[in-house]
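Researcher: Here's the sequence for the chain we discussed earlier.
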Amino acid sequence: MTDAAWESLSNQAVAACGLVYFLALLAHLVEWSSLRKVPVSVGAASTQSADIPGGIAVTTGPDGDDDSAAIRRTEIFGRLGYLLTCLAVAVQFVGLFSRGMAADPDRVPWGNMYEFTLAGTFVVAFLYVVLYRRFRLAWMAPIVVAFVLTILMVAVIWLYAPVAPLTEALGSYWLVIHVVSAIIATGAFTLGGITSALYLVKARATARDSDGPGRVTGYVARLPKLEVLDRVAYRLHAFGFPVWTFAVLITGPIWAHQAWSSYWNWDPKEVWAFITWVVYAAYLHARTTAGWKGRNAAILALVGVATLWFNFIGINYFSTTSQHSYAGGAPAPISADRLGVGVEANPLG
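Model: Thanks. This is the structure I predict for it:
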């Protein structure tokens, strides 16, 4: 295949995965809207509850047969949404792989902000799919899919840049090691941040309920118990932190020394990456030594994910002195050439 054909395939795959993510989101929205017909009691005894695969707890009410039928319907849409998400992740991988093959010479698919964002959203969705059963993450499904779809649309509409060879600074195998580890940690921290945000939402809703936690309704009522959300968030952050440490404090300085003959240059991205490391180090340290759990830990985790994504995208648009400016990429208009069709089109439309 020619480079132009690879680039066209990449754009088509990104458009296709965006469509499949949208269908997955619709399936999960139908799933959760169907659950409104099923009674729920937060903190109900385990003998009263039935679990939809993935960890959504419901309570069998007086209309047992009708409730069971509603539960079966929600199971179907839940499984459909998960399978569609798996398919979207696979198609997105095709888009990433094709993007790298479209360059001359072939290269890793993260030479600019458009490609970084594609890779970042792919890892978020991939980790969600992999950890879905281990951590019973069905309750996270609509949030994760909506987040990935939104960031993917932002990347296509505002961050797109044509395929180009890597700059000299990026022509190192340390690029692969550094960026892969940074993106994996970004995915874990993002999922942890989503979990922490949901913890705060449920804690606030529970505290405001004058009749006690058993009266909380809707999506919030079907979230896991607060201690479960807190534990899942901690495990995700505990996984991501050593990977981020490896990316920021080991491979990053080595790559910087190869590219700029200095291990540390006080570059804005280096500084913000270190700030992110400090925030997450404080988060883990506070949990293990000061016993910080629950609300305080969740707030600190959200501060960390805010610094992470500001460094990931914001620095390229707010800093004029960053040596990482080559990663920003120049936005390009969305045209039919990117899809290989004869009319003006939007890759996600």
